[in-house]
Amino acid sequence: MKDKKCFLIIRDKCFYFMISGNSSIYQYNFDTVESIPGIYCFSSLFEKLSVNSKNLKKFMIENRLLNKSKLFGKNYLKEIFVAIPDDIQLIEKRFLEEFLFSSIQSSVKVRFTTENMLVSTVDKEYICLYKTCRMFVVSYVSHNEVKETLLLERKNYTKEEMENFINNIHHDVKFKRLKVYLIGDDMEEYTSIGEVVNYEKIIRNFNN
To answer: How many other C-beta atoms are found inside a 10 Å radius of the C-beta of residue 52?
Structure first.
């Protein structure tokens, strides 16, 4: 039997999982983790690493998110595909990877993809505006590659300011009418510019 693929996206203090061949989304909450402005929750999971790892693995086993070895009778996972924020730093990716190693198994392969690459399965080129927990990220994506990224202070911008950022992110963009996708909380004020994409659509695009 072919191994299932497991997909993960993170929001606030929640991990959302999907597995290939299953349309359900499974939510796991880290209720005891303190929320710190500008810091992703997974950076705090090491304070109680043993407990957090054990509880997450138990959840994954109970919801059949891991594969079962008929030969050895063990729960295992070869790969996990993780959608990460566009502004994630290398050390944060390492924290998350180490936590997944501890929770699942040390041999699991963690495959990272930034969320701006997962907002559309149709458009070859587009703009992504992402309001993360600490900044605004404007990305120009072309043919499965992030061509340019603009990092902005996390504050409210007018529609005109945002359109200016978009038009000047790359010389190619000025001459094209590209679709714009929006990620993050409180993005409704920019819906005249683009389409809001929630975590559910992103993880389902990952699973396609």
So the answer is: 20
